[in-house]
Design brief:
single chain, alpha+beta, 22% helix
Length: 138
């Protein structure tokens, strides 16, 4: 299980401990465009394909028309973004480069039955079969 973390936890977050569990979803950026504002702030549009992880089958739909790539994609995102280099995140006395974004990811998902739903349906079928057999043997 992957533990929760915050990117501002100085000295705690590394690529190693950020990926110490099962990957839930891997997305590849298919296309992106940065518009408006200036070189340090503006709007960032992204298009994604689901390529791995435990939830890939739920997100790999290819049902959204990409406005940047022109092809079918799995997820799209429109964000406002700010890029700065004036915070000392690691405490070494020098400014670090970081990005801050605010936005949402939109897409369609595939509905997958939960194991408990399947188990309940199986139990119901066994019960119906048992009642039918019981009546047949009388």
């Amino acid at each position: 299980m992957t533990r929760d973390f915050t990117p501002t936890d100085v000295g705690i977050v590394t690529p190693g401990n950020a990926a110490d569990g099962d990957l839930w979803l891997a997305l590849d950026v298919i296309a992106n465009v940065f518009t408006g504002g200036s070189a340090v702030q503006g709007n960032l549009a992204l298009e994604f394909q689901a390529v791995g992880g435990l939830a890939q089958q739920n997100f790999d739909t290819n049902t959204i028309q990409g406005l940047i790539s022109g092809g079918l994609v799995d997820q799209i995102s429109n964000n406002s973004a700010i890029f700065n280099n004036y915070l000392d995140l690691d405490g070494n006395g020098t400014s670090d480069y970081y990005a801050n974004a605010n936005g949402q990811i939109d897409g369609n998902t595939v509905q997958v039955s939960e194991p408990s739903t399947l188990a309940l349906a199986g139990l119901a079928l066994l019960a119906v079969g048992g009642l039918r057999r019981h009546r047949f043997n009388k």
